[in-house]
Amino acid sequence: MSFFENYGETFSGRRGYVRDTVVAYVSDGVKQDELVKLSAAIPADLPVGSVVDSTGTLITTAADADYVVVEFAKAGSTAIVVANPYHTILKKSGLITNGVDVNSVVEQLQALHHSFADFATVALRTT
């Protein structure tokens, strides 16, 4: 069984590898992401949209949510590329939450300054 089947996600051939799966908008093409170096290797592949804790492991509770992965990371990697909360607007529908309630995860990520947009919301920051 594939990763996406295990976690109830649909694999379309692109999902999991392409940044626009989870990123709706970026305000700065250079600052849109951050490289996070981990103290230990990640235990499993992390597709784009994976919500992970500070160790790079998929979350088990909403309170664990620290980062949203924006570039596919292979198991064994010691660094991940994550969304910068100040320069990206994320798609709620693109999050991989490992069975944790997505609304609770969004609340936690919003507390960490992430912004979200969906089909009914336009959330472009203006001055």
Automatic annotation (TrEMBL):
Protein name per the record: Head decoration protein
